[in-house]
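Quick one:
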Amino acid sequence: MSARVLGIDIGIVGAVAILSRAGELVSILDMPVLADGPAGRRSVNAPLLAQIISESSATAAFVEFVAARPGEGATGAFSFGRSRVVVEGVCGALGVSVKFITPPTWKRCVGIPPGKDGAKDAARSEAIRRWPGQAALFGRVKDDGRAEAALIAVAGLAREAGR
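Output:
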């Protein structure tokens, strides 16, 4: 089996993409979440995520760097922070190195224009362009997390290669 890397869009509507080091999309899975938090809030489920990462045979993960955003409430910021800790902890426990990449950096690297307007559809469109044989994985509006996870991995590989 060739070396694999992960691209992880950290949020509860995110995803985990598994790519070969050559940038071939091997698999993509929605972020495993359960509505088991306070007041039934959804949160990333660590054991399910651990199973995905363990079975991927990945040696490295490129993870979107998240932080509190202006105007975001405390609950949203805490949720993002908790997701980051779960992802980082699971990867660390499984011996998968983690490299964070900011949204502006990965978007610039894969050719998505800056800003929020249309960025989700632009990510889906770029993912379909790169992997037309797997276009159905990115066909729905709610598949933007899948597209972003895959493109985060592409950007991480490009940065590693010095491109």
